[in-house]
Design brief:
34 strands; Helicase, Ruva Protein, domain 3; ATP-binding; alpha/beta; DNA damage; 5 domains; Rossmann fold; globular
Amino acid sequence: MEHIHIKGAREHNLKNLDLSLPRNKLVVITGLSGSGKSSLAFDTLYAEGQRRYVESLSAYARQFLDQMEKPDVDSIEGLSPAISIEQKTTSKNPRSTVATVTEIYDYLRLLYARTGKPTCVACGNAIASQTIQEMADQILAKPEGTKLQLLAPVVRGRKGEYKKLLQDLMKRGYIRARVNGQMLDLTEGIPDLDKQKKHTLEVVIDRLKVSPAIQTRLADSLEIACNLAEGTALVDLDGKEQFFSSKLACNNTKCGKFGMGLPELEPRSFSFNSPYGACPTCDGLGFKRQFAEELIIPNPALSINEGAIQASGWRSVSEDGWRSQLLEQLAKKMKFSLDVPWKKLPADVRRLLLHGTEKEMRFTYESKRNRYDFVHHFEGIIGNLDRRYRETSSEEIQAELEQSMRIIPCEDCGGRRLKAEILAVFVGGRHIADVVAQSVRDARRWFGELALEGKDAVIAEKILKEIRERLGFLDDVGLGYLTLDRSAATLSGGEGQRIRLATQIGSKLQGVLYVLDEPSIGLHQRDNLQLIKTLQEMRDLGNTVLVVEHDLETILAADHVIDMGPGAGEHGGRVVAQGTPADIRRALGSITGDFLSGRDSIPVPRKRRKAERGYLSILGAEENNLKKVDADFPLGIFTCVTGVSGSGKSTLVNEILYKALANMLHQGVHIVGRHKAIKGLEAIDKVIDIDQAPIGRTPRSNPATYTGLFTPLRELFAMLPESKARGYAPGRYSFNVKGGRCEKCEGDGVLKIEMHFLPDVYVTCEQCKGKRYNRETLEIHYKGRSVSDVLNMTVEEALELFAPIPVLANKLQTLMDVGLGYIRLGQSATTLSGGEAQRVKLAKELSKRATGRTLYILDEPTTGLHLKDIQKLLEVVNRLVETGNTLIVIEHNLDVIKTADWIIDLGPEGGGEGGRIIAVGTPEEVAKKKASVTGKYLAPYLKQP
């Protein structure tokens, strides 16, 4: 079958679609935000492909898998097994890294276990194990007639008397022994050894002369020695000693670790998730948490009585609380004031408060009824927090205490996660932690040049092939700047998606339907062509690659394009145009076609705002890969921070600028990235980071509650005559509290039924019929609509209904302005995409009264947006700047970058090769800078009308 045939697709806003998609082609689905792209790609095609696969498994296997509901579609023919590569963070597990997620680390462990060269931790000498035959051959290679004495080193540098050991050896026929370097005849008496001193005991096993005739006897004697001395033997050849070991052990007789063996190297020995390889101090995490003064006392200008201490349990010290009385009595005893700013307290007082006292002190605690006297040492604020952190079993309390903790590298392994003896095993001159500390690009280069010899080359051939291929795939999808030991939890959604993409390419599956969600997100234009080439390679393996995408280059590279629309929400769900990119370009009803053909475009501003109000300056920024950067952000204008992926944009803006300002202006407790100073703060009174994090973690959160729209809405219903007559207050119209909500479903509108090996079923509550409220509450109407009806309306419909009420109309209008007219007021926050959540936050800020001194920070706000939506977004963000506010946007989209007033471009590459400011100035000035990669790609966009 050459096509996938879909009939009657009605999932979400899809309008009973009948559609055919070519198989084994690169198919792009595009269209406005909310037009039904994801409903078609993920909720229909992927969901049905995955459901069919899971249902083919046994009932036993199915209970361990997440199962998808059957999508609302009549039929789908020609569907292959489906794999979804979505934009979600790869893993929150601190043990997951780029190397482990991509399976590169599994191959590295195998490589080091089979070809690694162990060395002694103490002296650095190479160590190796030998068979009895290899030992014998080495001795027999000496000149014939050479005298040798074979000894078994039964004790090396250990305290004890060892009388019983020597008596047992003598009974077994071993009558000569070298004790602390002196040869003794044990038949003449067992020596008295001081048990408090370290001793070395070596038993004489045999004395021989080198000749071919002694081969069998020598092998037997070596075996006896190894059995007695835990796999080790010592040969004295005319005064020169040679050490042999049947296990990995140091053979340098002058080394403190001489003779100390290593277990046989296995792949698990190199795993930081296994006790065989993990550093015992940090259990393979590479770090530990430690309470930090700067997080416990984020604002040292405050006194203790003013709330300087911000750690859990110490924040609001009430006057009659024991901690308050404790601090007052400490102040009297140590003669300091609780009203003096923390930073002005003597150093010894601050140290005492944080770390406690060694000597015991008398304290008195008076409650309302009793008085208690006790003598005890003061454990200190950090001591108290440390003890509570160790003793608690509550995850909530642990999470709260961790806000006052800084993550520091483990002092034993230095953050490398592995035991010292494992880090002393080398391949090509590098230990395994050194290899994964490299960026993907550097590792690819190193493995490309790595040449092993002899049997190692044969053993490693297939392993190296797999490692080189995987590194190549990662580099090709634009992730060359990531280090292999980078924690998976720190990756962005786009990075996580491209890692999964590279992993899938490495699996070389055929006959699969791949469904991808905007793989170009977070990718610089320079890396886009390589990504497109990767998608085409997946197709060429014999797969159907279905991509939801807005990037014009990707659309133009597709074999087949489906343009959804014509509008969003209820106005979408139809196929406006489909065919080759050339067909879409010619389609007059297609908004995408308008942008492809140049009939529509985002214009270059005729005039750019000038930096006339000074600068907000970061000095000496050196967090992550930043190279002591000094950055000046102009106040009162629109600045774009650009650069290739991994060049340091998010570190500079989010980790340093935002966190520092949030701590200073809003008493935040963020751990700020390393920098010397920030200047120009007096011009800012508020900082707002509008990111793509969810607007709520529960299904009860929705756009109406988040934007503050629900409060005046409930007040409106409470003011209605019928509502007043019944005595209903605004709380009656909340579905989160008892009173007006349906108690059967507790205001959810649905009931969850667990089905064990089948997917959980959500059924509409039969009592409220899914309306969330009880019958009495639903009897109150505004213009014929109940509160449930209003929550089920789209923003666009609600604006029409509430146009005469400014307090509601203003908030609804801002949601319309950011292009969210299609979402429903009561839509669960968990169903909103990252881009939608970000625009809800933006709408909330727009509806507030502007101070003209606010700094807004947006990180890639174009995620999930069609060019038409970007047009609207730019109008909105420019409104923020027009009222005097400062806007900083991290962005790769050149249509946004060209409209900025000012650009700060970082680079020149990602990772270790980035972290520098390459160009600053207006878009026109940056486009002329030869060193700027962004400038090179920006120049053609500035020539557009």
